[in-house]
Input
Amino acid sequence: MSWSSATRRIAVVGAGAAGTLTVVQLLRQAERAGRAVEIWLVDPAEAAGPGVAYGTGDPRHLLNVPAGKMSAFPDDPGHFLRWLTGRDPHAAAGEFVPRQEYGRYLAEVLEQSVRECRRGRLHRVRERVVAAREQGAGTALRLSNGDELRVDAAVLALGNFLPGQDWAGTELRASGHFVADPWAPGALDALDRAGDVLLVGTGLTMADVALTLARPDRVVHAVSRHGLVPQEHLADPAPPAKPPRLDGSHGLDTLRRDVRRHLAATRRACGDWRPGMDGLRAVTATLWQQLSAADRKRFLTEDLRAWEVHRHRIAPRTAATIRALRASGRLLTGAAEVVYAVPHHGVVVVRLSDGRTLRVGAVVNCTGAQTDLRRTGDPLVRCLLDRGHARTGPAGLGFDTSGDGRLLPADGAPALRLWTIGAARRGNLLESTAIPEIRAQAAQVADRVLTALAGRRVSGPRDRYGLRLSTGAEAAGLYGQALERILAGRSGAAALLGEAVDADPGFAVGHATLALLGHECGGAVDVPAALAAAHRAASRRADDRERSLVAAVDARLRGTEEQGKAALLGHIAAHPRDALAVSAAVPTVSFNGVTGAEEAWALIEGLSGVYGQDWWYLGQLAFVRQEQERWQEADALAVRALAAHPAAGHAVHARAHVFYETGEHRAGLAWLEEWMGRHGAGAGHRSHLSWHAALHELTLEDRSALLRRYDRELVASQVSGGRLLVDSASLLWRARMTGSWSGRLPLGELLEAAPRDWLEAPATGFAALHAALAWAAAGDLEGLGRLRAHALADGREVFALVIAPLCDALTDVVRRNWPQAVLRLGPLLPLVARVGASRAQHEVVEETLLYALVSGGAYERAAGLLAARLDRRPSPLDLRRLDALGGPPAPHGRATVLSVR
Output
């Protein structure tokens, strides 16, 4: 075949199991897709496949997973077992075979994949990668011999890093009595003549090293802080027991309790806890991601060791040998730390924290892999962190990555085309070192790398979804950053777009996007000028997709509502990967949209085959699911999106609604506080998330917290544009309606700062709803009158059926005409959703009706409304109010209870 510029160049750094499986998947998937690839497998090791984990030559070192679960391919679970039975017809699925056999298997799988892939070539480079830098649209890798390897993308399969050694002390480390890495070739051979040996660490490494070093005339000591040794697999295990619904967002203490209950229930049901532990495997990553940062750190400190010895178990034969060694006194394990270890006259004198002093011939480091990347000493890792191409993962474990394993740089937006796999993803996944996890990651990463590279052409820059941009590299890069911010709901996109069109005044998509953003979000954008510039640029330099986008933006900004809708949806039908257009079409916290709820649902659901597991799409789908009241699905989608992009705005917004609508007020408030503390500063909709947090505080009846939040985050100096009405003014009205705010409402500064067109001539029913609430909160009957007149003159159904009657009803409330207010508000409840607001937003009309009912003495009807609300969602506020309406009221007593003023 012809090897040309169309061939994609990919480096895989690391030739152990993770790197080998990644190469295999790249070759297999490239062959199926008909794509030409050249792959460089870079690792100083002689052999590709076994790596450290499966390169041991000791046949006593067995797999810790039965053979039936060790296939290299997630879509062919019996592959390894078939390979085994080809060599030994008696091999069984439940057998724990020597690890060296699995190393041979991986090497053969790689060789076969190379033979079968006609469109791929594999190069072996026996060097280390010591640095990486951006090179055009690709990446340049500097090798330990000084050469530079330039590729389109790279996958880092670095495996486990060497264990830490700080505990050993300088004198011991410099002596010949210390084995820093027991898996280094020949590391244990020198201990043949040594006497007793101390192993520091009592985990899986200790078990293997003890088997190698055990002999009749030697005592092997093994200590660790906890002294816990791995549990064993059963020879005939029961299948995994599916856990009940678990949720890490409720906090570590609750999760710990629920997991223990699950394990206890499993033990009662089948006589063993192991099936319950195995059943947690599928949900471990989700639970880890749901925990707060503080709870993750607590888990690592308080629970990790107990988790590991139960989760990562040893083979039955290994366990039997360890038991026999302990019973004979040839292996002594205990809970202790090394106080000091000093070489002295051919031995090492070791003082332990339990008071014992040992004299041993050698000390072996079995403490497990170093997880703090900055302490690994790896030059590539140090380079990536120092240059900001990568950042450390959650809880300080490994790299921080997107959901598909792509490295996230310091600013949170993907930069270099670098992915990682395996142990380096522990911070995001917790469990990421066993073959079942690694083979799935290899398949996913290969797919994402090939997909990312498939859209590249020599014809010019492209956006993150492969759409061509008719501009230069500088403007395209700025636009890419702006699009990332728009999709994530982050601030600063308009400024980046301004820089992009300054760099290239002929950039049509840049001008059109700037015009759309100015129309939707306000700010210092000359919308007509930007739109005119977009047309001029499109007439000179644009492809069909770009011209279609400019036309759709023009129809959205200057045409009727129906014209804008038809143009946007037509553009999306022709160009479904135009995520900007999809964003503009769907009502969200960022855009007003052009579709109703069910139309938006159908649009987003219909794009699943286009976007797959993309973080932005998952966030959009999560919001759809919460609108459909499919709360668990919505939450799971949001968690996945946030794992890929921690600042993903739609996912955050969806999860905020899930917490509120399911009555998880304390957990929701805590989660929002943590998220805003980490990512809120750059959120384009921070005030709306503050509004969500305030709703929890209002529902929990924490009035002082509510007032503090308003003064800190929702006053006019902290909010801008339409959000002054949507978030700040609406909250004040709701606080008054629920009795959560006493005294004069500070509406003057909000109305002064709010956009006049929102107040006097709102363009949408959504804006008009919030304008009406603001005028009512200010007690401004003239403002309500002007808004009513605008609604009647508008001609659209939503203004006639909802906004004009709402203005009349709010006028009655301000005038304290309770019977008339109740008469007008009641029929509006089933209609108010037409304005496009969320249930949580238009619920304020229901709050206003409750206020009017109680103020007018209609206590029984008010109680019925509260009871219906409590059937829908738990609420301490509603429960207290319903309880207050339980008996025959004194006329003013009930009004006082509901704080009517």
